[in-house]
Amino acid sequence: MKFKNQLLVAAMGVALCGCGEQKPSNPLFADFTAPFGIAPFEEITIDHFREGMLKGLEEQKAEIEAIINSTEEPTFENTIKVLDQGGVLLRKVRGTFGPLSSGSATDETRALQKEMSPIFSAHNDDIYLNPTLFAKVKAVYNNKENLTLTAEEKTVLQNIYDRFVDGGALLSDEQKEELRKLNLELSMLQLQFGQNLTHETNKTFVTVDKVEELDGLPQANIEAAAKMAEANGQPGKYMFNMQRPSCNPVLQYCHNRELREKVYNAYYNRGNTGNEYDNKEISRKIVTLRLQKAKLMGFNNYAEMALKDRMAKTPEAVYNLLDQVWEPAVKKAKEELADIRAEIKKEGKNFEPAGWDYMYYLDKAKKAKFAVDEAEISKYLEINNVYQGIFHVANKLYGITFKEITDQVPSFEPTAKCYEVIDKDGTTLAVFYADPFPRDGKGAGAWCTSFRGQSYENGVRVIPHVVNACNMTAGEPALQTIDNVETLFHEFGHALHSFFRDVQYNGAGGTERDFVELPSQINEHWAFEPEVLNVYAKHHETGEIIPMELVKKIEESAKYGQGFATVEYVAASLADMDLHVLTEVPADLNVMDFEQEKLNARGIPSQIFPRYRMTNFSHTMGGGYTAGYYSYMWAEVLDADAFDAFKETGDIFNQEVADKFRRYVLTPGGIDNGMVMYTNFRGREPQIDALLKNRGLK
C-alpha cells in the first residue's frame, strides 16, 4: 500500500453507495457498504483521515460536554455507558488508520501521526482530568452496591473508574498540569522512537558486491538479496536490510564470518549509531519522564505503577519468575557454547566464538547432533500450506472454517489475503487478513491488530476485522523457517482471541497484558505436532508429505538452542524491568551501557545480546509492553500448563478441553481477571514445571 496522489492505492474495486444515495465527500463519514462492512481503502485520502480524526474528536467532545452539563443524576446508563460506547466515529477512523500506519507507513502517514499525537494526548487528558466528569463517574462508582449490574457491567464500571484515577483525576490542579506536559512529551517521544526504528530496520543495509561472498546462503535468500539491491539502485549486487527474513539467514548459513559480523552489528545497533535516527537520548528521556509520571501518581517507580493492574502485580513477582528461569537458561547456553567451540575446532580454527558466530555454529552443532537440516525442512514449509495447517488446527479445535474473499471487497494491500471466518453454526464470526510479507514502511516483527474490534450495535454482534501483520520470507515459493512457522501460529492465536471475543462493552474487551499472550503462545504448540505436519508440511515441488524421519528429527531437536533463545529473551525482560524500577534516573544515563552493565553482573554469556537492545526495543520504548516484556514468559507458564490439559487426555484436539478453552479464555474478553479465567478453564492455578520441561531446562 502506497500513497499516490494522496490515494490509498489497492488492487481491487471501489465500494459503491446504495440506491442513489448522495455519497459524502469523505468516505469515512458514510457507512462502509462493501461486504462485511470492509472499508473502501482505495477511496480514502490522507486528508480524509485528518478530517475524520478532527471531526471524531469534536463529536466525542460534544458527548462529554453533554454528560457534564446534564442535570440528571449520574447513572450507569447516562454516564458510564455513554463513556464506554461513545466516540464511534473516532474509533472508526483511528481503527482504519492504525493498521495502515504500522503496516504501510509513508511520509504522509508519519506526518499525520506527528501532527495528531499532541492533539490526541490533550484530548485524552481533557477527559480524564475533568473534575466535573470524574465527580459523576465517582458518584456512580460509589453507588455500585445499590445498582443491579451484570458481571460485565461491574467490570466496565470498575475499569472506567480506574481509568480516571490512573489518568490523574485525583491529582491537584497543579499536578494535573504537570501530568499533561508529561503525557504530551511522552506521546511524541514514543512516536519518534517507533518511526526511527522503522527507518533503521528497513533502510539499514549491508551490501555485498560478489556472490562468492555469500557461500552457504540458500539460493532463495541470494535471489531475494539481489532483488533488494536492484530495487535500491544497486543492480548486480546483494543487499540485506535488518528485517529478520533478510538478515537472519546470513547469520545462520553464511560461511563468510566478516559478513556475519557486519550484519550482526548492524542489526543489534539499530538506533545506536549516532545518526539522525539514534534512539539513545530519546530512550533516556522516555525513562526519565515515565519515572516522573510514576512519582507524580504516588508510586516509587514506573514498574510499580504499570504492574498494579496485571497478573504479576509487583516487580518482585516478575523478578521471581525471571530468576527461576535465568540460572538454568544460562547453564544451558554454556553447554551450547561448548558445542559451538567443538564445531570451530572441527574446522581447524581456534578462536573464541563471538555473537555473530552463535547462530551459524549452533546450526552446525544441531546438524551434527540430530542430523537435522533446517534448509531441507523449509522445503516443506511453503507459506500458503502453512496457513492451511493453521486453519486446519482452528477447525479441529473450534469447528471454524475459512473462505477466501477474492473479488468482492476492497484490498488495503495487494499481497494480503482476506478471509471470511465462519463459525461452526454457519454464522460469520470475523474477517481475517493474512499480511505476511515485508515491504517498505512496514514495522519490524509480527503483530496482530484490527481495523475493527468486536462490538454490539442495537443488540447485534458486529464482527471484528482482524489483521496478522508479519515479516516472513517472501518469494516464489515463500519457504519458511521453523521459527517463522511458530510466529505464524503465534499471531494467529491472537487472531483467534479476537475472533471469539464476545462482550457487550468496549471497556470489558481487554485482558491483562501478562495474560494476553496465553492464546497466542498456546497456539504454537500445535505447529509441529506430527498429525498437524501431515496436513500442511508438503514439499513445495513434489507435494510429498514431510517424511516421518524429518518429523522425528524436528521433535528430537526442538529443545536444542533453547539456552540461547531463553537467555536472549529473559535478558531483554530483565533490562526492561531494570530500567523501570529505577527510583532516580541519572542525567547522563546511557541506556545501552546500563543494559550491558546489569546483564554482565548477572553473568550473561558475552556471545548473547538481549533479543532487543534498548534503542530498538519497541515493546518497551514504544509503550505497549513497558515494564511488561516479561509477559511472554509469564504467559508461557500458562500456555505450557494449559497445553498439558490437552495432552493429559491423549488427544491434542480433545473437544471438551477445546470448548472449555474457548468458553473460559477466548470468549470473555476482560470480564474476569486472568487468573479467574485460567482457573475456570484448568480447575487450578498454573504450575511452572511444564515451562521448564518444554524449554529443556529441567
Tell me about this structure:
This protein is 54% helix and 7% strand. With 698 residues, the protein is α+β, with helices and mostly antiparallel strands. The strands form 4 sheets. A 5-stranded mixed beta sheet has the order 5-6-7-11-8. Strands 1-2 form a two-stranded antiparallel ribbon. A hairpin with a 2-residue loop joins strand 9 and strand 10 (460-462). Helix 5 runs antiparallel to helix 6 (151-166) and helix 7 (173-202) packs antiparallel against helix 11 (280-296). The longest helix is centred in the middle third of the chain and has 32 residues, at 315-346. The two termini are 47 Å apart. Residues 1-20 have low confidence and may be disordered.
What is the typical, i.e. mean, pLDDT? 94
Largest sheet: 5 strands, mixed
CATH T-level topology of the domain at 378-557: Neurolysin, domain 3
> How many DSSP E strands?
11
Find the structural class using helix and strand composition. Answer: alpha+beta
- How much is the radius of gyration in Å? 25 Å
Q: How large is the count of helical segments?
A: 27
Strand content: 5-15%
Examine the secondary-structure arrangement and name the CATH architecture of the domain at 378-557: Orthogonal Bundle
Could you give the order of strands across the largest sheet?
5-6-7-11-8
Reading off the top of the CATH hierarchy, the class of the domain at 378-557 is best stated as: Mainly Alpha
Dominant shape:
globular
User: Which stretches are poorly predicted, pLDDT < 50 over at least 5 residues?
Assistant: 1-20
| Distance between the first and last residues' Cα | 47 Å
Assign a percent range to the helix content. Answer: 40-55%
